[in-house]
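Why do we bother with holo predictions? Because pocket geometry can differ from the apo form. Keep that in mind while you read this record for guanosine-5'-diphosphate.
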Amino acid sequence: MSSALSLRFVQSATRTRDLPDLGPEVAFVGRSNVGKSSLINAMARQRQLARVSNTPGRTQLINVFSHPNGGAVVDLPGYGFAKVPGRIRRDWPEMIEGYLLEREQLVMVFVLVDGEIGPTPLDQQMLDWLRYHDVPHTVVATKSDKVKSSKRPRRKRDLAEGCMLETGDVVWVSASKGDGIDRLRDLVVSHLAG
Ligand code: GDP
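The structure, written out:
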């Protein structure tokens, strides 16, 4: 049986300059409710590591988790949840963009896209922005279990196309069923090892 991604919560912060230097970093980003917390918990095989939000948009901090062999996994606040107070919502892009542009330790951004829904305009904006700024990124499609197996080949093509990628460039996962979790975990570890 494959091992879990061993992660320990270190710190939450609102600003990049307050973050600890733990070596190479990978970050997870996506719109609220995309399944980011569930995915981090599934990779770590811990139920409560990242908070699965009952109220989407409540976790607006940069959360840092350390890996025992060095490096860190960073959980960025979810974007695009309409019900957060205006001030917090306005601060999001600055906080996320500041981190993505300034963080020297950052080696890979995993952009989560809902596998059932496909990329939303906000997801596409995020991908355009990452491409424009040359930030290394990988698209992860979540909740693969919600796509009927008969529809998967077509959905995989469509989602990749919506992200302007080849089908094979997208990593598909299901936090609920465990599909693709080992592959993603190995990818994460390979980046942390530098
Ligand atoms: P976050 O806001 O991006 O951190 O998303 P959460 O991890 O809190 O998940 C949002 C909702 O999607 C929750 O109701 C989860 O139970 C559900 N969810 C997350 N991952 C999966 C998955 O792989 N399959 C299914 N069917 N539901 C999922």
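Strands lie at 8-13, 25-30, 62-66, 72-75, 106-114, 137-142, 171-172.
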